[in-house]
Write a structure and sequence with these properties.
This protein is an alpha+beta fold. The chain has one domain: 3-Layer(aba) Sandwich (Aminopeptidase). It is about 25% helix and about 35% strand. Strands 1, 2, 3, 4, 5, 6, 7 and 8 form an 8-stranded mixed sheet that branches. It is globular. The two termini are about 25 Å apart.
Length: about 160
């Protein structure tokens, strides 16, 4: 059985090797695999918490980032969600950890994300609901989703 370490670090706490592995996987999934040339380094990483499942060899098995949503008080944002072992449950476990991080670190009442349409069911399992019509982001259909944290325990 594979062993993973879940790490939660603010950008300033990441080692060079961790940052390199995170960026390598993000580019591999969002740019190369999805054949979508876009500006992956968007300036938001510096103000984000980075949650990732790391294998014993240092490679990344799952990743996401959590940040404050700039234009809404009490709202955190989750993004860049990926797993390199699809169907393993790692993505769901990390998404749950991301929700808790947003709640505990930012005292968020709500979490916002933009999901690729094919992944809506993945987010709905954690309680997110679709709040927009589909729209194209870098040529890929997305929807806005939100999760209300009112009444959810922080543990």
């Amino acid at each position: 059985m594979k062993k993973y370490t879940i790490k939660e670090k603010h950008f300033d706490e990441l080692t060079n090797a961790e940052l390199y592995e995170i960026m390598r996987e993000r580019v591999a999934v969002f740019v190369v695999e999805q054949k979508c040339p876009y500006q992956e380094l968007d300036g938001k990483d510096i103000d984000s918490y980075h949650l990732f499942m790391q294998r014993e060899d240092g490679s990344i098995a799952a990743y996401l980032r959590v940040l404050k949503k700039k234009d809404e008080t009490g709202v955190a944002q989750i993004g860049r969600v990926l797993t390199t072992e699809r169907g393993s449950g790692l993505g769901g476990a990390l998404l749950h950890a991301g929700v808790l991080k947003a709640q505990n670190e930012y005292h968020a009442d709500e979490i916002y994300l933009e999901a690729q349409v094919y992944a809506v069911g993945f987010y709905q399992k954690e309680g997110f609901r679709v709040v927009s019509e589909p729209f194209l982001e870098d040529g890929i259909p997305h929807v806005q989703m939100r999760l209300s944290l009112n009444g959810r325990s922080k543990g």
